[in-house]
Write a structure and sequence with these properties.
By secondary structure, the chain is an alpha/beta fold. The two termini are 18 Å apart.
Length: 368
């Protein structure tokens, strides 16, 4: 039986490659905590999570001070037991973003170890349901982008074989409709348009907007309301024919269960970092499957390509490159579809020299 003998933590801060704005914020930096776990049999696993500019140092500190010491001497193959142990150890701060993001960095590293030890890629180790997953792009749909550029990006994505584009909403309702209508007219009916409200509306505003959007035949209306407003999502789902998508700001399997049981959504967008890792992400995906609901994960395409291919209800991958500055690998795209990597592990080839150069001061820790 292998044992965990050392845990290393560091954090890099990455600037987005394009300007990113939505209804409530601008995404100006990505804090990326990275965890490496070393076992006494020589196998090493690397995992990570992310923030959009705040909280990264708290995540690193939580791992270094409280979680990593709890892992020493544990069998890294017992991933579920380790996850439960760490979750209980932090029960006073769970369920919540900082705890989930810390657990995710650890859990993804453990799955990387598991796959490397078995010699199988993540998408096979976790289920192997699909060989590829359709792609849609978000990078050309940010709220500050004007109509000509929105149209140009959507047409470029369609020409590249992508199946859809996401456009941010949150301007005046009629202005949003004008932007969406221009894209729909340009791309035709055989290309999906997703819209994302980033939790910027209240219930009456979301219902009004949804009714205005309905004639445009949208793939989904994402995060229309604050994620904690379960009742509002129920009301909205009952008031519109648009699919309602939630998940990137939900941090518990139980909360997904409540949304699904109450008919408050029809698309699940669990984020592997914000739900606490691969272990709970797979549970959410299979929970959604039991309700005949698709999972279309948020962000983190480098991880989600393998996870979505692992399950039968993985419907879309969101194309937003985020790790190019610190990895040698790139996601494989064939005919507009994302293809999961086939090498053992997560399939992410880290550039450790670049990571060392970009590591934020004071965020490097080793626990043994």
């Amino acid at each position: 039986m292998a044992k965990i003998e050392r845990v290393e933590i560091q954090m890099v801060i990455l600037e987005p490659m394009v300007k990113r704005t939505d209804a409530i914020q601008s995404f100006v930096s990505q804090e990326t905590p990275i965890v490496r776990i070393f076992a006494d049999d020589g196998v090493v696993g690397a995992g990570y999570s992310f923030t959009i500019g705040t909280g990264g140092h708290a995540i690193v500190d939580l791992i270094a001070r409280h979680l990593a010491p709890q892992m020493l001497g544990e069998d890294p193959e017992r991933i579920e037991a380790i996850w439960k142990k760490l979750f209980f150890h932090t029960h006073a701060t769970a369920v919540g973003a900082i705890t989930s993001l810390a657990l995710a960095a650890i859990d993804t590293a453990l799955w990387d170890m598991k796959c490397r030890r078995s010699g199988r890629p993540l998408h096979i180790e976790a289920g192997g349901a699909q060989k590829s997953v359709p792609l849609y792009t978000t990078e050309g749909g940010w709220l500050h982008i004007e109509i000509p550029a929105l149209v140009e990006d959507a047409l470029r994505a369609k020409a590249a074989g992508f199946g859809g584009s996401k456009i941010k909403v949150g301007r005046r309702p009629q202005e949003d409709v004008k932007r969406l209508a221009a894209v729909r007219e340009a791309v035709g009916t055989d290309f999906e348009i997703m819209v994302d409200g980033n939790q910027g509306a209240n219930v009456d505003d979301a219902i009004r907007r949804a009714r205005l959007y309905e004639p445009l035949d949208l793939a989904w209306y994402e995060e229309p309301l604050p994620a904690e407003d379960l009742g509002g999502h129920i009301r909205l789902s009952q008031a519109t024919t648009l699919p309602v998508a939630v998940g990137e700001s939900i941090y518990s399997i139980s909360h997904f269960r409540e949304y699904l049981q109450q008919g408050a959504c029809s698309i699940v967008q669990a984020d592997v970092a914000r739900i606490g890792g691969i272990t709970p992400w797979l549970k959410v995906a299979h929970l959604a499957e039991s309700f005949n609901v698709a999972i279309c994960p948020h962000f983190l395409m480098e991880l989600h390509v393998s996870l979505s291919a692992a399950v039968p209800n993985g419907r879309w991958i969101e194309y937003i490159p985020q790790l190019d500055r610190i990895t040698h690998s790139r996601m494989t795209i064939e005919n507009g579809r994302a293809v999961p990597p086939n090498q053992p592990g997560l399939g992410i080839d880290w550039d450790w020299d670049a990571i060392r150069r970009l590591t934020a001061e004071g965020t490097t820790h080793a626990v043994s």
